[in-house]
Amino acid sequence: MKIEQLHKLFLECNSVCTDTRKLKVNDMFFALKGENFNGNTYAEQALNNGAKYSIIDEEAFNTKEQTILVNNVLETLQELAAFHRTFLNIPIIALTGSNGKTTTKELINATLSQKYKTTATIGNLNNHIGVPLTLLSMTKNTEIGIVEMGANHQKEIEFLCSIAKPDYGYITNFGKAHLEGFGSVEGVIKGKTELYNFLIENKKTIFVNGNDAIQIEKSKQANTFSFGNDDKFNIQIVFIEAHPNVKVSYNNLTIESHLIGEYNFYNIAAAITIGNYFKVDDSAIKKAIENYIPNNNRSQVLTKGTNNIILDAYNANPTSMQAALLSFEKLNNSSKVAFLGDMFELGKDAELEHQNIVNLIKTLHFKAILIGENFNKTKNSSSKIGIFKTFDDFKSSFDFSKVENATLLIKGSRGMAMERILELI
User: Fold this and answer.
1) What is the distance between the alpha carbons of residues 184 and 173, in angstroms, rounded to a whole number?
2) Considering the domain 90-291 in this protein, what is its CATH number?
3) Residues annotated as binding site for ATP?
4) Which of 8, 132, 216, 225 is the most buried (most CB within 10 A)?
């Protein structure tokens, strides 16, 4: 079946689905395969549960009129998404970066939705499956699409751009993330700037943080719209040491966010800039950012008992960990404790980067509890740092009754599930 024909059938459906547990009536089911499952085996069940069509790639499961046999289900999903994107012909904003992608995407969406009907990536569905699903969730009512793109090796962003064909792009930053796949920070820069390369080649627009030398250098040949100290949009941070929430000043407005840490300043600034570019009123921009409440373990501020908690445990890498610690240092609370979990996907640099974090903590003025096999391998002579090899070791040994009237930072890679600490406090 040609992709044009499949797209006509797709338009008959409410949405697409890849998981029968989340299937809704009149969905188009795509029988994807994974290491431990074969979606083809669920194709008939999907139809019985109300799917309008099931897309399969194994002849043995072509048992009903509503099953559609293709060569490769994943490739078909991607081709359909690319076709649908062209069919809609709406502005698409793509963003990637080492840190802050999802928060920035949420802020941009909150800002633009003050004026436009937007569709944005849900959660962090930002890979070779998530991007197509995001595009296929857009409808004729969508006025602007916002697509988050993640990557852990070269050519991924390039591939995602070939599907989403963005008109605008923003890179949050370049940091020490996914070093195992990218090989080095230079590899990270090369991989992330594949977004710039696409936009430059297609004469599209790049949003640039004018205070980031790498962004400036890599976007020299592009149509740019920038913000920063020396640019048209001069957005300043207003940081109060006694409180973690970030405030910014812009066009004689003060915007107080619910986001913690100076590292979120540029995420907010990008949303302000993009909102301004698309002519969202300043008052609406202020409303959008001030009403945005972070969730899902990202930059959340909580209270349990007598303790204030900064929960930033969705993920971590050396760059984001350092930024979080330096921001935590600036809070002038007398009693502070950082609970940090291992950082993953660092490959050969894992030992060095964990030691760097330990060395940094030694220069700061708060206690730290480090959890994980990588942190356990570090050299530490400081009495203010405690290290546990596993979370179970920490859970059985650490006495939370001694932590009172304190401010706590909780951060680590997703695999460490550091939010479990909340159950112990």
Assistant:
1) 15
2) 3.40.1190.10
3) 97-103
4) 132
